[in-house]
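Below is one such protein, fold included:
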Amino acid sequence: MRVLGIDPGLTRCGVGVVDVAPDRTATLVDVVVLRSPAELATPARLARIADGLEAIVEEHRPQAVALERVFARSDVSTIMGTAQISGVAMLIAERRALPVALHTPSEVKAAITGYGRADKKQVGAMVARILGLEAVPKPADAADALALAICHAWRTGGVAGAAIADAAGARSSGAADGSGLTPAQRAWRAAERAAAVSGAARRVKE
């Protein structure tokens, strides 16, 4: 299953593409942070981000799109830009008949780390572990986009043919066979044992 994860933002828009195998092993396909300068008019900034998103969709042909769910913040300008880019991304996906899913930050953190209040450093470190990367993708928008893609594949169960339990409610027993581990913890264990990622997949663009 190939998922396009988008961490929407008008100044910086994180975009990550991940392939997730039936055993839930995730592999990095591409990651980039699209940018638009603040001095441009808003329509021009939206067009610039849209062009980048369309190019990535055309190149990598994802099967699903995962977006961070917009929620209220004190910074109105930030939430407006986030909402605008989310709308652009949804339109691009709809025109290509790609299913779109929205995940809250806490859902992503729970799926990736097993803890819904993990900080960005913990999420980034886990993303690097899961994907077998030598370094955490930077800036944080890149790691967040990859986390969204992985979260979507694991939570929807599209890679396993059945619904996957929410990591926030799963229990870990530490059993040797990993039967009591959350999907994120199993992926971490697998990544520690054998992280084999091609040179192309290690490319992290800023």
The beta strands are 2-7, 12-20, 26-35, 64-68, 100-103. Residues 159-178, 191-206 have pLDDT under 50 and may be disordered. The helical segments are 42-60, 76-95, 105-113, 120-131, 140-156, 183-193. The two ends are 25 Å apart (CA to CA).
